Amino acid sequence: MVDLVGGCRAFVSVSETGSFTAGAALAHIPQPVASRRIAALERHFGERLFDRSTRRARLTPFGRELLPAARRLVQQAETLEHDAKRARLHPIRVAVPSTCGVRELAELAAQARALEVHLEFRAAEPGERAELVRTGEARVALTAVPAEEGVWPVPLGLAGVTPPPGRVVFLETLRTGRAATGRRRVWIQPEDDVPHVRDRVLRIRDAVGLSPAQVQVAASLTAAVAEVFASADLLLCSAAQAEQLGLAWRGIGELALARGYGVAAVPGENTDRLRTTLRQAVGRCLGAEG
User: Fold this and answer.
1) Is the pLDDT reported for residue 82 higher than 90?
2) CB within 8 Å of 28: residues ≥ 6 apart
3) 59 and 142 share a domain?
4) Dist. CA 77–CA 7, nearest whole Å
5) Mean pLDDT of all residues in 167-172
6) Residue 135 has pLDDT above 90, yes or no
7) Are 68 and 115 part of one and the same domain?
8) Domain with 79 in it: what CATH number?
9) Which family does the similarity line name (predicted)?
10) Domain tally for the chain?
11) Same domain, 68 and 106
12) Where in the sequence is the domain holding 10, given as residue range(s)?
């Protein structure tokens, strides 16, 4: 049986270069192989593809008529090879925090690809990430867990437009000002609207005598950052996130607070490389130190 794809690839390459030698090089095959494949095509179709009476490989009228279809076949074969290679990589959809930066995710994907692991990302809030794994819409999720239980701890602090004085910010200092409109607020973004982070902040709020309105959960990260840009308010965030947003970051004086991230996966999914070989790359996406 004639090798239609191999023959058409040689046919197209020779037609583009006008030379059997150059066409073979373009197709990454020896010149005798290119000649044999084209001859086999000609026998199969019962017509000459090239006029061999001149030094240059010129297409016959039949060859010119067949060339567009041969190009389409070669392109379809290359697409099939690309899709087959991608399928061999077993794409893994990973649910990640919406705080992850594009550059960091791209670097993680590139590093994983070198290990023949193809990652695709879906940004989601903490509660949704675990649900995506449960429903099978994602095979792996970076889940929010208490920092002491996680693979990647991410220290949190407060960030604002103007650098707060000192190396840390004490929440009790936000009590200054008698008028409610003059009180600075702390905004908790959706990524930190989880009990092991939110509740600890609220307990400190109550302990130091801040009003309930001075610590609020924002509807979105964008909304929280807009409030910070427009006022003296502070955003609860990681140092890496503050740097991305152009905000000055300080730790919290009353407590050491951190996000924690673990890995959840559908049964049978191997996540060892995320925890080992790719651990630092994942950590950069999350804003973990080190």
Assistant:
1) no
2) none
3) no
4) 12
5) 92
6) yes
7) no
8) 1.10.10.10
9) Belongs to the LysR transcriptional regulatory family.
10) 2
11) no
12) 4-88
Domain boundary among 65, 88, 111: 88
**Chain segment 191-231, per-residue pLDDT in tens:** 999 999 999 999 999 999 999 999 999 999 999 999 999 99
What does the pLDDT read at residue 181? 45
**SS3 assignment for the chain:** CCCHHHHHHHHHHHHHHCCHHHHHHHCCCCHHHHHHHHHHHHHHHCCCCEECCCCCCEECHHHHHHHHHHHHHHHHHHHHHHHHHHHHCCCEEEEEECCCCHHHHHHHHHHHHHCCCCEEEEEECHHHHHHHHHHCCCCEEEEEEEHHHCCEEEEEEEEECCCCCCCEECHHHHHCCCCHHHCCCEEECHHHCCHHHHHHHHHHHHHHCCCHHHEEECCCHHHHHHHHHCCCCEEEEEHHHHHHHCCEEEEECCCCEEEEEEEEECCCCCCHHHHCCCHHHHHHHHCCCC
Give tens-digit pLDDT for 228-264. 999 999 999 999 999 999 999 999 999 999 999 999 9
CATH number for position 159: 3.40.190.290
Last residue of a domain, one of 88, 111, 143: 88
CA gap 50, 54 in Å, rounded: 10
